[in-house]
Please model this.
Amino acid sequence: MATALPTFPSFDPNADQGAPGVRFKKYIARFRNLIVATDIDDPKRQKALLLHYIGEEVNDIFETLTVSEPAEEETVLDVTIKALSEYFTPKQNPVFEEYKFRNAKQTHDEALMTYYTRLKQLSLTCEFHDADREIKSQIIQHGRSQRLRRKALIDPTITLAKLLEMGKAAELADSQAANLERTENVSHFTTGSSKNHNKARLQSRSPGTRVKCRNCGGTYPHEGGKTACPAYGKECRSCGKLNHFQSVCLQDRQRSNPTKPRQRRYPQTAERQDVRAMDNTAETDYSDDSDEVGVFRINVNNMTSDRNKHPLFDVTIEGTLLTIMADSGSSINILDEQDYNKLSPRPSLEQTRIKVYPYQTETPLPVLGQFTSTVASETVNRTETFYVVKGTSGSLLSWRTSTDLQLLKVVKPITYQNLPTVEQLTTQYQDLFQGLGKLKDYQVQLHIDEGVPPVAQPHRRVPFHVPKQHEEQLSQDEKLGVIERRGGPNPLGIAYCCGTKAQVTRKAVQRERHITPTIKEIIADLNGANVFSKLDLNQGYNQLELAPESRYITTFSTQLGLMRYKRLNFGISSAAEIFLNAIRESLDFIPGAINISDDILVFGKTQKEHDQALAAVFQRLRERGLTLNKLKCEYSKNSLEFFGYVFGADGNGPRSKESPRYPKPQSPNVSHRSP
Model:
């Protein structure tokens, strides 16, 4: 009697959820649980059941495979699974697998045991002699906990199991302490009565400060409290409301002077002043065990009067977006109490001996404690220590943190005494027009989705009449360092083809999503300019070097053998935005210069202003190792045409429809045949 088979999903080899080899291994593990649950012992029935469940597409693949006979201890199911596993799992490159292991770092929201599990899975393909030792070393180097790292370095004989036990205990203690301290903070900061809050504000004022009562105009506060005010219970002759005199009536004041802004009830106190700058040469990380006291001096001024004049940046701390000022004179990171209370979850504070002084004062600001957290800008994230000060004095990012997050940059000033002309500049910078440049201290790291299955593209035959020219071009690119010969398979065991811009290559490379300027933004930047120059970067993309670990995906087939790119090329889906961002960073802080694609536009309101910008751009290109295409450069033009728009002294806008580039078609002459 036939029995109904239980439902079981098929295996889709083309799904996008990850590498097919990993997914197939999990699928087989679930299938083995099924045959145990259904109590099927016959290996032939087990094989038939697998091929029934696995799906038609995998069945077609299985029929093309060569399946060996089972060994003594193997079954037909074992050899079937082995053949399919070898098909779906590409050959592993131990060097590349070890590279992935070394670059695995604990994220800011990743628990220690989750990080350990990820390292354990990565180590399975690395062929380590002692995997536990390598995992322990990776946790010590790239784990988030500085406290765990110090304890591990104190005792070099510590085992992996002991390290994980200490890390779990530390995370549990931090979580419990954070809950307790959060409760204490809420009780301390939010449950106090408004009467005590006002009392504290009044006590914080200097003894000589006199405040006018907004109800009667006399001295505030009144000794007898609110009811002792002479205006209490009196009716205003201006608005008819109770508890204030006509002389201080707001409605009467607004009618007489409607544009006068409303005054503060209380003068701004020291707690409401903002941290502006810090003065100290030491940048040492202090621990609780240190007996040294770091003294920092800060300048306190009002920053909120005109926030547009201060370098404020949006950064993320503990997953919370905050606006903080980057200070080039600061040595430590400061977070005021108000910003600290915005963090969720709020990190626990550790005691510190650091003292923070307002600039040119001897009274330190009250420091509540310190904590270490991940701070991230739009492009970079770092682990930094923050010191929390009481009050709402404002928050600061130190000089080191600001530069690490790429918020502040050092720019060397250029003097323009006896500025040369355009002709003299091109002669002075002749080296910019020779050869193919390479951007210094910069390598493009492609973000490759390892879950996309590699695909071998067929060799594209070169037409018979151009093989010599094709080989000459390949030899020239190899001599310039654009491409290199590739021997053997890539780390995934199979060759991609980037030379033909294969669809799978564009799918495997993930974009970085850099911002590209729009035409409206370019028009706004060029508004008011009268003199223009356009500089063309020589083989622009090829001036950016590819990181060695990112080159394998650009492998392509030629009649001279396998080759791959050493430089960025057009076949990469993220190449345009990577190139645009790299050149924009290279031209940072040069007024009168913007880059669009592989062109650099230099402009100015006057010839002198334009020449200053051109000299600065030439100097920067020389410093960064970039070169130009002399034949495509244009200098000192009254107008330039770009992207279908004309930028000139007479204004910026779309190209005229009467442009000679697209001549108006003429009606053909019709000749009549004579009868």
